[in-house]
Amino acid sequence: KAGVTQTPRYLIKTRGQQVTLSCSPISGHRSVSWYQQTPGQGLQFLFEYFSETQRNKGNFPGRFSGRQFSNSRSEMNVSTLELGDSALYLCASSSYLGQVYNEQFFGPGTRLTVL
Amino acid sequence: QKEVEQDPGPLSVPEGAIVSLNCTYSNSAFQYFMWYRQYSRKGPELLMYTYSSGNKEDGRFTAQVDKSSKYISLFIRDSQPSDSATYLCAMSAAGANSKLTFGKGITLSVRP
Prior knowledge:
The structure holds two protein chains of two kinds. Chain A has strands spanning 5-7, 10-13, 19-24, 31-38, 42-50, 53-57, 64-68, 74-78, 87-94, 105-106, 110-114. By secondary structure, chain A is mostly beta strands. In chain A, the strands form two sheets. In chain A, strands 2, 4, 5, 6, 9, 10 and 11 form a seven-stranded mixed β-sheet that branches. Chain A has a four-stranded antiparallel β-sheet with strand order 1-3-8-7, with no helix packed on it. The radius of gyration of chain A is 14 Å and the shape is globular. By secondary structure, chain B is mostly beta strands. Helices cover 0% and strands 57% of the residues of chain B. Chain B has strands spanning 4-6, 11-14, 19-25, 30-38, 45-51, 54-58, 61-66, 71-76, 85-93, 101-102, 106-111. In chain B, strands 2, 4, 5, 9, 10 and 11 form a six-stranded mixed β-sheet that branches. Chain B has a five-stranded antiparallel β-sheet with strand order 1-3-8-7-6, with no helix packed on it. The mean pLDDT of chain B is 92. Chain A binds chain B through residues 4, 33, 35, 41-45, 48, 55-56, 58, 90, 92, 96, 98-109, and chain B through 6, 32, 36, 41-46, 49, 51, 88, 90, 92, 94-105.
């Protein structure tokens, strides 16, 4: 079974631009979560989508948004980029079969650099 | 105070050493406790998962949870150079909708 894939792997943007990152979950997984990882703050939860609906949201400004498509693929968008948005953006998928704990499987991440 | 605090490191040990990694937390609602391992230029992968208090062993790895002290640990016995990675603790409350809260991670280097 193929793992979680994220595209692109590396991205360089300038301040003020916007960016869209893509995540394809493991086949059959319906939940996709996004995280931002920086050396200073560690791994921080952005949001989770399940069946095309945002089910959970972290404490990030409205410049960070996401969506999920009917095939469970997900995109996240960051508008009006700031230098502090430079980070590794990780996507994780889980099967959510209704049990109380669902293991999350992470993709390799997209390294975003904002100049 | 952050919900999850993890020793910042980095940590460097000789091959064969016993490694102890620790996290403390403040949210009493946390019921599920995980340790992830992240190699350079890769995403985190689940190493150990524990529900509530107690110990869990898997090969050279042992996870301990003490909910009364809000303290979790990961022990690595007979550490190997291949164990060199960043280790992140993570926790969540009960319920499939609950999000994961991570520690900042500690980078471990095992010297041959």
